[in-house]
Amino acid sequence: MSCNVLGISAFYHDSSATIIRDGEIIAAVQEERFSRKKHDSSFPANAVRYCLREAGLSVQNLDLVAFYDNPRKKMERLLFTHAFFAPKGARNFLKAVPMWLTEKFWIEALIRKELGANVAVVCFDHHESHAASAFFPSPYDRAAFLTADGVGEWATSSYGVGLDNRIEILAEIRFPHSLGLLYSTFTAFLGFKVNSGEYKVMGLAPYGEPKFVRDILEKMVDLRADGSFALNMEYFDYCTQNRMFSPRMTELFGPPRRPEEPLSQREMDLARSVQEVCEESVLRMARRVKEETGEKYLCLAGGVALNCVANGKLLRSRVFDDIWIQPAASDAGGSLGAAFLGYYKRLNGRAKVKNFQDIQKGSYLGPSYSNEDIKACLNQCGAIYHYLDDKALVDRIADEIACEKIVGWFNGRLEFGPRALGARSILGDARSPAMQKKMNLKIKFRESFRPFAPSVLAEKAGEWFDIDRPSPYMLLVTGVCKEKRRLLTEEEKKLKGLDLLNTVRSYVPAVTHVDYSARVQTVTRERNGLYYEVVRRFYEKTGCPVIVNTSFNVRGEPLVESPHDAYRCFMRTDIDVLAVGNFVLLKEEQPPYKDSGDWRKEFELD
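Request: output the structure for the sequence above.
Response:
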């Protein structure tokens, strides 16, 4: 008889649900994909319903429900933090306590109420859930793990060892000392939104110089040789206030940038500096983990593990033979980790035999739609479309990309995690010097400096990028091969800041960042199906095995989930072609789209 565990992550950010059956991931999805509220933190009712439907289960069929957090330990941290900093922050403390005492503290009862059934519910510690999400789906039967984020209950970073069906945490760094909160503090100081703007800091860093590294390490962070660290809390206000940084940070670096203000060289230098501190911290922690565990492989999770520049540097350091990063490394992946803990730790499930193949299923774990469903939706929208079989579809889309058309691509199961991996993607020609600017300003409605990622045929990746292993989840940044780079002129070498955007730096400029780096996704027929065939056909037509792959959404909006979401995004942007299932839509053939006002106001811009 099969064993079914539902994992839930909720009430902070990136709520999600996961179903595991006998150690196999059946379904996993974030609530935001249904609610259309980015980083939705509410109880993932829609995500739970989808997971149960995908698994063919009712709530009564579940053996266990696992929550990714320990609310009692979080309440303990809230009380101790207030006591330590009192009377500072009393207003925030008094505001938070009623919500904890009436809802979050009694999480088991709340979950049963939401599910409408008297099911068995268990809570696990936050970083234990992160660790489980890293190790259990990984390709390894035994490995070390390292987790780092803002904060769980008390832990902000942890490490340990996973073996077969169990994990053991060996040590942790505790709140308020947090690498994730350090990075988020700079995110806020630079005028971006915490918990979503960290990607922007990482993307902005190559435009700057590490001028403030010494200031950060001498005044704000005590970073030790063994990987441990302590923050100087005089520069941080997140313990007691609704803000990240204190006036001392303004005294050190000048006034913070306001959201949407033009970026100056100072902001770029600050981004570069905190990025380098983050990278050095991750490297030192990894070396410590290696020394303490002696393991050959390392698994990563927690929000810091989404810093793909640090990941790439860690891989190239060869501290470990290989690393594996959970694609949904942030709190969304907590539901996955909790479900695995429920199966292995509480129900004593048997470990899966992996043979060095991860069991994440390409992270294609969300909803899919049949051609019949898609056709019905398109008819309801009044869309004009053309049906093509798989072979004709692949050929047509490769042609459109080669003609520098921008394509919305919707095919198969929705991705779990923040990255579009070829199921809900916007595609473009990586050879086009104008593609990055066009996509950023006319499709994504986001800052011009933000880079795009390449999808490359796995068998050709080493010819175009400095990478010698698969990178299926777009979580490693590496360099463009020297043979594919373009030498800059003397005048171009003098450019600084955002003026660097105007330089063509390689044969694939649309995916080459200003430091010649790229966040690579390698694609294979076995893992990526029809998406692989599109890239392969593009290569046959052009001799280039690389295309642009960015998420199918606009700024402030979650990744599209349904055909209706896809059509809506297609009609509200300058996307030229929409491929949804086996249907192709051309923008010039569509009837006028009825919309109300400035649709971007519907979403919270970040």
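The longest helix spans residues 265-293.
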